[in-house]
Design goal:
single chain, about 325 residues, alpha+beta, Hsp33 domain, CBS domain Like, 2 domains, ten-stranded mixed beta sheet, binds zinc ion
Length: about 325
C-alpha cells in the first residue's frame, strides 16, 4: 500500500506562536470517527489542558514544552487506539540537548510524561515556526504496548524529522503497516512559557481502502487549512471534506499522574535492607521526587526503619 501520506504532513503540523486566548478552559477531548464506507478512521484531539498542565508541573520552557506536549499527544493518540487496561509508553530518544522524552498513556485518555531537559527556549525559523527537531537530534521513536500479557509489544523506528507528528506517522506505517497522517500542534503564548493551545489529528487508511481512495484522501488533506487555525470540532469536517463519516465516540482526555506515597514506599522497599540502611546512615532519611508530576515524598529515618522491619517479615 502506498505510503505517501506519511510524507505529506509538513504543512499540517505547523506550530506557530500566536497570542490568542485559550478558547477552551474546560476539559480536553478526543473525537473518534470512521468514514461511512469504513475505509478510513480519524481522530481529532483538543489537548490544550493536557499540555498546559504538563508545562505547569514541569515549569518547562517553550521548545521543551512543545517537544513534551507533542510526545504526550502522540501517546494519547496511541492510547485511543487501544481498549481495556492497555498501557502505552512512548519514548523519544535523541542525541540532542533535549535528552529523552517519555510519555505513558492508557485507553481511558490519561497521560503523564517528562522531558529530560525542560529548559530549552525558542528556536524559530524565519517564518516564525518553532522547530524542535534539532534539539532532539537523531535517534528513535519507541512504542511499548503493555496489554497485561507476559511480554509487552515493542515497536521502534528511526526519527525522520524529530518533530514527532511525522515520526508517529512513520511508526504507524513501518511497525503497524497502516498508512497514516498525523498532525500535532502546540503553541505557546507570546512572551511567556504558557501553552496557548494544543490540538491534533490522526487519519488512517484501513485495509479496505483502495489505492485510488488513498490518493483522493491525500489530495483532500493537502487542501485542508492549517491545524492551528481549526477548533477541535472543525478538524474532522476539514479532514474528510466531501467524504461521509460518522462520529463513534467523544470522550475526555487529561494529564494525570497516578503516583502515591505507598507506591514510592514499595519502590524503596524493593531496594533492599542494605541500601535503606545506608540511606539512614548517610542522609537520615530519603526524599523521593516523582518525575511525572514533581511531587516530593519525604521518608524519615523511622519510615525507612519501618520499611526494613516490614521487609524482614517476608
Ligand atoms: Zn506523580
Amino acid at each position: 500500500m502506498a505510503h505517501f501520506l506519511v510524507f505529506s504532513l509538513v504543512k499540517y503540523r505547523k506550530t506557530i506562536v500566536c497570542d490568542i486566548l485559550r478558547y477552551n478552559t474546560s476539559m480536553d477531548k478526543i473525537i473518534k470517527s470512521i468514514s461511512a464506507n469504513g475505509h478510513f478512521r480519524a481522530f481529532a484531539l483538543d489537548a490544550t489542558e493536557t499540555v498546559f498542565e504538563a508545562q505547569s508541573l514541569h515549569d518547562s520552557m517553550a521548545s521543551s514544552t512543545i517537544a513534551l506536549g507533542r510526545t504526550l499527544i502522540a501517546a494519547q493518540i496511541l492510547g485511543a487506539l487501544e481498549k481495556g487496561d492497555a498501557k502505552i509508553t512512548v519514548k523519544v530518544i535523541g542525541d540532542g540537548p533535549m535528552g529523552p522524552i517519555l510519555a505513558v498513556s492508557d485507553a481511558s485518555g490519561t497521560v503523564k510524561g517528562y522531558v529530560k531537559n525542560p529548559d530549552l527556549d525558542y528556536r524559530r525559523t524565519s517564518t516564525g515556526e518553532i522547530l524542535i527537531g534539532e534539539f532532539i537530534g537523531n535517534g528513535q521513536l519507541i512504542v511499548i504496548k503493555d496489554m497485561g500479557l507476559r511480554t509487552p509489544y515493542t515497536g521502534q523506528v528511526d526519527l525522520i524529522s524529530a518533530e514527532i507528528g511525522e515520526d508517529l506517522a512513520w511508526y504507524f506505517l513501518q511497525s503497524e503497516q497502516t498508512p497514516s497522517s498525523v498532525g500535532i500542534h502546540v503553541s505557546i503564548k507570546e512572551g511567556s512559557d504558557q501553552v496557548a493551545d494544543a490540538s491534533a489529528f490522526l487519519l488512517q487508511a484501513l485495509p479496505e481502502a483502495s489505492e485510488a481512495e488513498i490518493l483522493a484522501m491525500e489530495k483532500q488533506i493537502k487542501n485542508m487549512p492549517a491545524l492551528a487555525s481549526l477548533s477541535v470540532d472543525e478538524i474532522l469536517p476539514a479532514l474528510y471534506g466531501n467524504i461521509d463519516y460518522k462520529v463513534l465516540e467523544e470522550s475526555e482526555i487529561r494529564y494525570k499522574c497516578d503516583c502515591s506515597r505507598e507506591r514510592f514506599a514499595e519502590g524503596l522497599k524493593s531496594l533492599g535492607s542494605a541500601e535503606l540502611t545506608s540511606m539512614i546512615e548517610e542522609d537520615g532519611g530519603a526524599e523521593v521526587v516523582c518525575q511525572f508530576c514533581n511531587t516530593k515524598y519525604e521518608f524519615s529515618e523511622k519510615d525507612l526503619n519501618d520499611l526494613i522491619l516490614n521487609q524482614s517479615e517476608f
